[in-house]
Each structure stands twice: as structure tokens, then as C-alpha cells.
Design a protein that fits this description.
The chain has 426 residues and is α+β, with helices and mostly antiparallel strands. 16% of the residues lie in helices and 34% in strands. The protein is built from 5 helices and 27 strands. The protein is globular. The two termini are 36 Å apart.
Length: 426
Amino acid sequence: MHGFFVYLLLLISESLSIINQNKFEIKRNFLLMAVLGCTALILLSCKREKEAQDESIKLIIKDALNNERDAYLSEIASSIEYIPLETSDKSLVASLHRPILIDGTFYIIDHKWKDIKRFRRDGKFLGYVGGLGRAKGEFTSANPFNLFVDNEKGYPYIFDNTKLIEYNPEGSFVREIYVPDFKNSNAHIFKMIKFSSYYFIDALDFSSGKSHLIILDSLGSPLNQLPNFDKPEKSEKDGESDGPVEFMSATPAHIYRFNDLLRIVTPDCDSIISFDNSLIRSVAYVIDYGNSKMTGTAGNDRENSVSAITTFTTESDNAIFLSLRIGENIKSSEFGEWYRALYNKRSGEFNLLRKKGKRDAMINDLDGGVAFWPINHSPQGELIMPLSAMEFIDAADKSNSSEMKRVAATLKEDSNPVIVVVKVKK
């Protein structure tokens, strides 16, 4: 490529030296330069496209399994906080799975009470978002994986069967956005999420077993070709087509925000796809299982197989956190043990965390407190892990953290959960 540009410069220099030739000669040389310039741009474009394709990072599961070690929280984090949520009749949280923290507010779906609660960053109860029911602005189910918060405006959204309900940061209803009417019972909508001015829908075709990614504009009109739920179409590998994005799985994809990007973990967790604000699609990470990929078939082949749990994938600026099931001593269709794998973006290390009893997490060497493994992340560079009051009290008793012991002394066994928040290193 370098030699080509040297040659191009020599041609331009030669053209300038013959500037006094007749008009025909000048036109001929100008056309020659134009053709060469266009060729150079095409070659540059091809080179950039190839470089973009090569930017995806491969995480090889075998490497992680062969590099089991203790991982320390100080490798990725600079500080840790323990935030008890206010306990009252109105704020009581019975079941906390996946809290969201954004712009100083916690959003929590209580799966038991089927409501969405808001808490301030210091744990003070702020109120509810929407409510259970069938009226406008109400939802009929409360799934923690269907609650999202818009990074730009801080507006919470919850997907409820056929619509995405939008609220303002104070929890008041704003509007509803409906999914397209596919008029086919074979179509099942897993989730719908707002990203920038677009809406992404994860839909399943029961007849073919494929999941499809559908993108709508701000008015709800499809931007990509809608899937044909009547006749299964030939699947194309992601990144090779501008048509529908298809996943060969009957389980939902995991969709989350990472900085200014939308990340999609494919249902079988073999890649993490990115979309930017211009809807440019790329593959950020490829997860290579080698010969140990879970086939879904019961029997001996599952004993040494590995599967990653898509919905428990978390990402920060400096790490990716994967939850794995390793099929040791699997009988029939039972799952194997849970393990955690950590990819350090800065060092490039990919490790399986060494188990400590029944819990495998990062050793807390920041203050000697509870071991940490994130459930979610915030756009402000924080990672989040919830603990029930009983879990927290027990962990504080066994820890060397004076701050944990101080917070535990304020709790009862039936108090609201405590959310552990760590600040990610820059």
C-alpha cells in the first residue's frame, strides 16, 4: 500500500512537470490522476473494512479453563460502597434480581410484588414507576430483564407483551410504543428496547426456532426487512448481510447499553454484537467454545461441555464478566456447576475464577469485605451487586471490613437488600 502511494505521488509530480503540454495531454493526465485517486480510495476503504473486521476480540473458553486463578477486585475497581435500601411498608423489596443504577437513581423490579421502585443513590425511597394493571401506562408483568433506562434522557422503559411503556425519571407515564402486528401466533416477542432514536425487538419464530432482531425508527416503522414467520428462511451469518439479523436459538438474546453502543449477546452466547448510533453493526467479541460447546443433547457429550449464561453477561470499560456452566458429571438433562470467567480488557487475560466453597467471585482486597461479582453496570462507570439483608449480615460477620460491619449493625434480617457498588478504574 505504501509503494502504491509513492508511485501515485511520482505520477502527480510528472503531471505537473508537463503542465505546458497541449490541452489533450492535460485532460488525459487529469483523467489518469482521477482514476488513480479513486483506486487509492477504494483500496483504502477495503483496508479499513478489513481492519474493522479484525477488531473483534476472540475469547477462547479453553484458555480460561486452563488458567484458573484467584481474581482480586483491585484489578478492576478503585472503591466500594455498601448501600442499604430504605425499609418501610411502601418501599419493601421482596425479590431483587437485577437493579439498575443511572444518574444517581436505582430502579428495581420486585418480581414478587410485580412493581418498579425508585431509590436514591444513598438508598432513600423515591416512589414507584407506573403500576400493575391493564390501563394505559400500566403493565401486566414485571420481568427484571425487560426493564431498561435510556442513557440519554434517564427515562425508564418496561416491555410488556406487545408494547414498550415509557416513563419520565419521576416515574410518570409518557407514552406507549407497540410492536408491529405480525398476525401470526408463531411469533413471540422476547423484549423491546429503545436505543438512541430507534427501537430494537428480539422476536422468536416458534416454527423455525430462530430469533430475529427487528429495528424500528422513532415512529415505529421497520428499518430492516421483517422476518417471514410463515416460511423459515435460510439463515445467514451475522455481519454478512444487511437483512434480518437471525439467531438459531429459541432463547432470548441479552441486550444492554455499553457507553454509546448497544450490545447484543447472541442467545447461544457465541458472540457479542455492537450497534452504534448510526446503526453500524459490528462483532465486538467472539466467544470460542472449541469442542466443548454445549449441543443441547443429553448424554456423554455434555459431561465436558460448556455453556455461557447469556443474561448474566456484564461489561465495564475494563472487563467482561461471564457466567459459565461446566458439565461435569452431568446426568440426563441436569446442568453442571456454575463458574465465573473474567476477561481483563487491558491485560488481555481471560481466566476462570477459582472457586471458594460454593461462591466464586472476585476477592475483595479493597476493604476486606464480601467477594464481588457484578449483576449490572451503570453508564457512570459503576458495577452493581445486590445482597439480601441476611446475606449481608452473614458476610459482614465473616469479613474484615469495618464499613460492612457498621452497615450490618443497622439492619434486621427482614430489612431491605443492600446494594454493593464498586467504582471501575479508569
